[in-house]
Specification:
2 domains; mainly alpha; two-stranded antiparallel sheet; hpI Integrase, Chain A; 3-stranded antiparallel sheet; 12 helices
Length: about 280
Amino acid sequence: MKIDRHGQAKILTFEERQLLLEQGFLCQRDRTLQEFCFYTACRISEARQMRYSDVFDGDTIRDTLIIRKCITKGKQATRTIPINLNLAASLERYIRDSRELLQIYKTIGKWDYKSLFCGNIFSSDNEIICPKCASTTITTAGKGRHDKQMYGCKTCKHRFQAKTAFIEHPELKKAVIRLGVYNSTSYGFLFLNSQNPYLFPGSEGNGCLSLSVAKEIFENACKRVDIVGASTHSWRRTALTEMHKAGVPLRVIQRISGHVRLKNLQRYLEVSREQVSEAINCLP
């Protein structure tokens, strides 16, 4: 278990993996990034630097993906890994959601917390409500700074500005909330910059997702579902350990993990008490 960056990253159980993917991560980009680490046993630093063309041929997912030598630890060697069917499905959802989000982004014209957060601005019936007393008896109240529309509450006389973009585009509210990125200030839009080659772009579609943001995404997800002792490296350790438990030969696991020495790989593999017990009890 890893605490304050000391120790090894926690091996995630099946239940913990499901909890993280279903409740911990808010949008499909973040889920796909994690599943990429798990289903290829790669490092988070490798996943975030993957190029679109390493995984896709046009709009088609390749049978195998390439982890380029230049992004691997120590720049040891290029790895070619078959694409797991679960990862392929996650990638397809990511591409679909990215295209839908990009259209919303272009309609709204900006993408930040204040413009997309609907918070205490709407009632369950999508009526504008007063953020102070929750009254729905609202009227327009002239223009404020930068010529922004102001609203007034007839009940408590509170005057406020509804900064959310849903005031002008209420039809987009459900879609943005469903897609899960309405409160993200660091969402990098795939396809926004046609010259950007990365599968997981950085802010405003430029460069690749930073390592600090990738780690923050994982840490926030763990906090949401109360998982302690895990880090982004947990996906890699878990994948390699699961292969080992399934009886995959070490040489095959080494080919996937990219470890130069078997002794380095063996440090990744966790042996459970159950495995030790089974080993002892199998003796004649």
